[in-house]
Amino acid sequence: MSRSYGDLCGVARGLDVVGERWALLVVRDLLLGPKRFSDLLGGLPGVSPNVLSQRLRELAEHGVIRRRDLGPPARVHLYELTERGRGLEPVLLELGRWGSHAPPPPEGVFGIDSLLLGIKAGFDPARAADLRGVYEFRVGADTYLAEVADDAVKVSRGSATGRPDAALTVDADTLRAVCDHRMTVDDATRSGLMCLDGEEGAQQRILDLLLTPFTPNR
Which of 6, 113, 125, 165 could cross-link with 202 by S-S, CB 3.0 to 4.6 Å? Predict the structure, then answer.
């Protein structure tokens, strides 16, 4: 980036790298794994292709992200975080916790990545033993994996190598409605809009993982 705060403070130097509009949201949308340009564009309503291209270029120049070419026959370009970029995860999770107390925009929509990152933001390490397991969230055509072990939870795009302890299958709009408390889990499952697979205790654990960050007065 050509602009700089000209300040030696680490906060200012960090903002020199990720302080431009959309930059941190690009990083947020890559926290769960690589994405194509079109996927990033679709997940950031309001950003133009030109601005997104510029942010990707700037973040790559600063070593925050890199482009990976899958080559023939796919000829697909993926954008992914570098180790330096992944270092922003705790910053973004804490910023998300802080920002969740601000008034929401009147027409805002939760991105699916943001909803599932809420699992990490709302995770209580003291409950890890009670939530231990491998869980799949199948949202439309995408699958996300949550793994709870020791005192941490890992969330990423992808499927379990074996059979998950529990799986939740749902479309994006229903998932948003359940997390926003506009629809109950019981209503969603009775109507067939949401399906839970796995042993009963594991089904309850996957719901606890998902809904804890969106439960008032937790």
Answer: 165
